[in-house]
What we know:
Elements: H1 9-16, H2 34-43, H3 47-63, H4 71-75, H5 88-104, H6 118-124, H7 126-135, H8 140-143, H9 148-158, H10 161-177, H11 181-190, H12 203-220
Helix pairs in contact: 1-3, 2-6, 3-5, 6-7, 7-10, 10-12
Amino acid sequence: MTPVDDRFHELRQLLQAYEQPGHAFDDTLEATGTALSAYLRVAACTPDRAAEAAREIRDLLAFGLFNEVIADDVDLLPHIAPPPGVGVDDCLRVVLHHLERFLASPAAPRPSVRPTISWEWRERFPALAHLLGAYFYQGSLELEYQSHAEAVDDYLSGEPVADVRRAASDITEFLALNPSEDDLREAAAALGLSEPPPAGVPLRQWLTDIRGIITHRLRGGTA
């Protein structure tokens, strides 16, 4: 759960989308840039997020970026660089402009559109991102687990059933969204996969096998 005193929780999530494209605002009043376009595609599935982000931006602008009352909350936000000659508050007003346009006429979700940045991949596939990033990070098979199977067993025994079930669903959609092996490897890395699959096993087959293991465990009630 989000702490009750996390004043700018959703705005922080939004600004994290800007980190990969280079810690810079690239939006104009006429068009959204890379990060905000990705955020709005995610928000199409949960418009309440965009509404909350807009509310938090209004709150922040009403106080002022350098108001001591909210200084601690502002410090928690990613520091995104504005274009030369433009203030961060002006950039946030542009973001707010696009959020309000979106909320006035929410776009329909577009599940067939591939994410363009790592943030969007993780938002689209949170359960799979946790599985890959938390259990198959670089060095996990040397520092923590003796094998891929041991890591998967630990995942199944330690995570909530709802999250495990969501991971299986994520894998199905993830594989369909990445028909080529190059796309699949790139997207899996964006989700946090740093360890290669077992020797001789293609990534697609390995993910399919994991989905099968999850499904089997869920049917047996042992996950």
